[in-house]
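Narrative of activities, Objective 1.

The group set out to show that a structural description can be obtained from nothing but a protein's sequence at a throughput compatible with the screening campaign. Below is one input-output pair from the validation batch, recorded exactly as produced.
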Amino acid sequence: MLSVFLEGHENYYALSDVIRLFWNKISENRNQRVITCSDCLEDVSIFSRVNSDLSVETFININESVKYSADSVNHLEPIETKRELKRQLYILLEHYTGKSFPWGCLTGIRPTLVAGEYDNYEDVKNLYLVREDKAKLAYEVKKSEDRMLSKHSRENLNIYVGVPFCPSRCEYCSFISQDIAHHINRLEDYERALKCEIKYLGKRINREIDSLYIGGGTPTVFDDKLFENMLQTVMQDLPISTDTEITVEAGRPDTITDYKLDVIRDLGVKRICINPQTMNSTTLTKLNRRHTAEDIVNAYKMAVNKGIEIINMDLIAGLKYEEPEELILSLKKLFELNPANITIHTLYKKRSSAMSKQDIVNRLQEDRKLDSAVSMAYELLEEKGYFPYYMYRQKDTGHGLENVGFARSGTECYYNVAMMTDARDVLSFGAGGMSKRVFEEISPGKYRVERHSCVKDVLLYIKNVEDIASRKADFFNI
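Output recorded for this entry:
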């Protein structure tokens, strides 16, 4: 068993994130100031200390003897104390296990925040032990984010409308998406509750809306008329302008109809998402996605013929039933369709998904082919004229990789940048939504952020929507 003993600090969260890169089963005992990992097959003790002068001392002890000391990192330029603790623990575990990860000791969801602190990518590479291609990626995305943010005032608002229902539940999906096979009777009630919340808050909003994103789940899971009613409410009861960027997720091709595409177009929506995840029909069936790769192609062509201007398509690298090379085959099939945006996700373990963490993390950490396939996908995208414009990472991701949105120039989705950078306000409607307010800038590019979560349970949301809307109004002071 691995035991990490903390002295002089309480950075449990940060150090646990580093341990999760190497092992799975992590527990914290704050009374005893120790983090334990039962996946480690040997008895290993790591002492992580911060002295009164904020100097850091970390060393490893196996069977009463020092195996390796992180004192050897002293040749590196010092960094902020919490980050130094993570860096030293990472070096210890890298030495002990023989494993390393593309993002080094960076474990946060937004590596671009760190990249923004330095004048060049080499600082990120050297200080945080990040692989060169990832350091360059973070630095490039940061420049794209800054360029897009500079075009929009911090005073403006961004809106998310969530519909946590899908026609079936994918094997990798978390509990937030409700399978309508079991909850079909809730769709009308949910639409009414969503309408109630939008009407309550919409009349109180006195700020310009820069972006509106209708996501899920799959918002097009509603039948034709119910979808039209929902979208009309959004457009009529929120102060949307002709300058507002509007995106509708139509992720599942089996939910896309002529009627819905007409509604989307006629209400002025120019952006939609059609998300295959893979272009392998066999994999789609195994994942419980009830459509084929041919259905994806047909839905895409239907949307293009309806005049939808910008379409995003997602792929997932590292799916359980595929070899890593399948990602490249799927990507090449998307190139034939020529969508404006392509997003590459790396499979990660979501809570309550049918896939186990063993299916995802352990399998992929041992398979360097996934890393190579993702890198190759990025190279192919850039060769085709796409560039990375937003990025985020998640815990328990295969091989410690990331999710990156690529776009052709002028087709980027501003909402994604506003949401992921924590630099702009987002008001979220619907069950499971996360709203946030951005306050004063505490350092260049970093802001104090407060978040307000909404209940995830659909029935509780429907039952308590008026109280939910009222508390959200208080949070935004409207």
